[in-house]
């Protein structure tokens, strides 16, 4: 399986289990890997034979910035479902949602989740 990837798409949104996260918001980053057969696009040099990267970004942005969830697990699941529903050429998707600054005591770079989903 070939892959299209997006690294560290950055958003400001209002997801979290704590009231202050939903009130103040925070930064989130999203990484994607989309499993797609890229051979037809490579052979024909035709954008219509692959996935429109701009539409992928807008789909993720819509899920992150216009909805609110308590869990990043739910956010990742919704992103994966939206991508599989919107892009028939995508056979599988990896979604990684990272919270760089969560309200958790301690020293670390970030926390987050990574999920993989396949078309059923």
UniProtKB/TrEMBL annotation:
Gene Ontology cellular component terms for the protein in this record: cytoplasm
Keywords per UniProt: Folate biosynthesis, Lyase
Pathway: Cofactor biosynthesis; tetrahydrofolate biosynthesis; 2-amino-4-hydroxy-6-hydroxymethyl-7,8-dihydropteridine diphosphate from 7,8-dihydroneopterin triphosphate: step 3/4
Coiled-coil stretches: none
EC number from the UniProt entry: 4.1.2.25
Reaction equations catalysed: 7,8-dihydroneopterin = 6-hydroxymethyl-7,8-dihydropterin + glycolaldehyde
SMART domains given in the database record: FolB
Family (UniProt): Belongs to the DHNA family.
Protein name as annotated: 7,8-dihydroneopterin aldolase
């Amino acid at each position: 399986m070939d892959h299209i990837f997006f690294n560290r798409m950055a958003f400001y949104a209002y997801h979290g289990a704590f009231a202050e996260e939903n009130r103040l918001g925070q930064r989130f980053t999203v990484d994607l890997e989309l499993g797609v057969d890229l051979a037809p696009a490579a052979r024909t040099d035709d954008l219509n034979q692959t996935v429109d990267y701009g539409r992928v970004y807008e789909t993720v942005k819509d899920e992150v910035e216009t909805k609110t969830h308590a869990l990043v697990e739910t956010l990742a699941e919704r992103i994966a479902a939206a991508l599989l529903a919107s892009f028939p050429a995508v056979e599988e998707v990896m979604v990684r949602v990272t919270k760089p600054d969560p309200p958790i005591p301690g020293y670390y770079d970030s926390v987050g989740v990574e999920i993989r989903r396949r078309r059923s």
